[in-house]
Amino acid sequence: MSRTEVSEMKQIHQPIPLGTLIGRELRNEKVEKPTVKYGQAGLAKKGEDYFLTKPDYQRVPGDPSTSFSVFAIFDGHNGVSAAIFTKENLLNNVLSAIPQEIGREEWLQALPRALVAGFVKTDIEFQQRGETSGTTVTFVVIDDWTVTVASVGDSRCILDTQGGVVSLLTVDHRLEENVEERERVTASGGEVGRLNVFGGSEVGPLRCWPGGLCLSRSIGDTDVGEFIVPIPHVKQVKLSNAGGRLIIASDGIWDALASDLAAQSCRGLPAELAAKLVVKEALRSRGLKDDTTCLVVDIIPYDHPVLPPTPKKKQNLLSSLAFKKRSQSSTKGTSKLASVGAVEELFEEGSAMLAERLGKDFPLDSNSGLFRCAICQVQQPPGEGLSVNSGPFFSPASRPWEGPFLCASCRRKKDAMEGKKPTTRSVIS
Fold first, then answer.
1. Residue 410 belongs to domain spanning
2. Quick one: which of 2, 41, 257, 392 has the most CB atoms within 10 Å?
């Protein structure tokens, strides 16, 4: 054997550095889908809380590879009709707003806008029933390691990662605490103030008038002005393959427990026991003063029977996750596995303006030449559709040619929410 051949053999059998091997593994490893396990617990004071659990829903019926999970809580007020109606219709309304026959990545990118359309459509449909109840909504979609949360009102969803850090995935729409929402309501024609009792004293939390609701966003509430909008705050994040725990609960829990205390109280327990313990802790702290409903959802690495124990870590107040923003220059297929507990923020938007939430594309059915309403999905001729960017009398600032387009009914809803026309709602005592 020549010296050249010996040298080549040594190079072939030379050990590869560990770092190189790990890098290859991260680039080439197919991360398996996580296991989703959940538990539910609750106690009724008024019987107006409802919840939805669909752990194995399929985008393409009959194809298990397209499965995703949905968990939601509906905290009704002034009756149960809005909560029940929303539970029965919201998911279908959201899915109908997502184009058919698209891949998973495109589906996830379309989901935030579809959630906005689904919430608004559900509100329009419920208002047509002429009932006055309302409901908060916290609606969670889990697809592999991606979690998307849409919410109106003051139910809440928190994320507890394996790094021991707790973060809010929702925004509370309480007038008492949300200055931006107070300003929006008054700018749209509502009044914000407390209850006046005999003698002129003001009591209780801030409310909007007419109606006297403490919230600035909900579904239903037909006895309140249209400035109480159903447009949700939406946040989408991607967990690391270490997994994490979601706690979704109505305000009966959060009025009694801070978010970090709720997470800490049930760490190390299976989801079903964890939900029961959160409710127990809330009752021990405050008593049964409101409906208390809790869903605990564990997103578990595929090779673990249960969620790995979270390292104990002292925390003073609610910590914010150092969300890693997706780079503008990142491309599909180049992301590496995140470190333990790390979370990548994919999307967040909370604006109450439809023109800012529905994007600018306006799909045209090439076969029929019809536009589709971005909210109710009804097809319409281009001449009859109104763009969300059309101002009154096509003002210079408007862009009436730029979509998406709304049918006349959904356009009236948009204008009413923005205070551009007098509300037709009446106050019902």
1. 355-424
2. 257
Instruction: Identify whether residues 130 and 236 lie together within a single domain.
Output: yes
Average pLDDT (26-50) is: 83
Q: Which residue has the tokens 């399929």?
A: 58
Which region among 28-42, 143-157, 343-357 has the lowest average model confidence (pLDDT)? 28-42
Question: CB under 8 Å, gap of 24 or more: what pairs does 100-105 form?
Answer: 104/59, 104/66, 104/143, 105/332
**Residue 202: strand pairing partners:** 196
User: Do residue 142 and residue 285 come from a single domain?
Assistant: yes
Beta-bridge partners for 50: 74
Last residue within a domain, chosen from 290, 323, 352: 352
CA angle 17, 19, 25 (to 5 degrees): 110
Q: Are residues 321 and 393 in the same domain?
A: no
Task: Kindly state the tokens that stand for 30.
Answer: 């197919």
Picking from 333, 352, 371, the residue at the C-terminal end of a domain is: 352
Residue 126: both structure tokens together: 């419920």
Q: What is the DSSP letter of 328?
A: T
* Burial tier of 209 (Cβ tally within 10 Å: 0-12, 13-18, 19+): middle
345 and 367 inside one domain: no
Q: Do 240 and 348 share a structural domain?
A: yes
pLDDT, one tens digit per residue, over 53-69 is 999 999 998 999 999 99
Tokens of 418: 């923005």
> How much is the average pLDDT of 285-300?
93
How far is residue 403's CA from residue 396's CA, in Å, rounded to a whole number? Answer: 16
Its pTM stands at 0.83
pLDDT at residue 395 is higher than 70: no
Helix (H, G, I), strand (E, B) or coil at 185: helix
Q: Residues 244, 334: one domain?
A: yes
- In eight-state DSSP terms, residue 317 is S
Does 178 fall in a domain? Answer: no
**Better-scored residue on pLDDT, 29 or 420:** 420
Nearest to 137 by CA among 77, 184, 58: 77
Mean pLDDT across the chain, nearest whole number?
A: 82
Residue type, 321: L
Q: Are residues 260 and 139 in the same domain?
A: yes
Q: Residue 217 in 3-state DSSP?
A: strand
Per the structure, the count of domains in the chain is 2
Residue 70 belongs to domain with CATH number:
3.60.40.10
Regarding whether 245 and 163 lie in a shared domain, the answer is: yes
Is 50 contained in some domain? Answer: yes
Burial letters 231-256, b for 16+ CB under 10 A, else e: bbbbbbbbbbbbbbbbbbbbbbbbeb
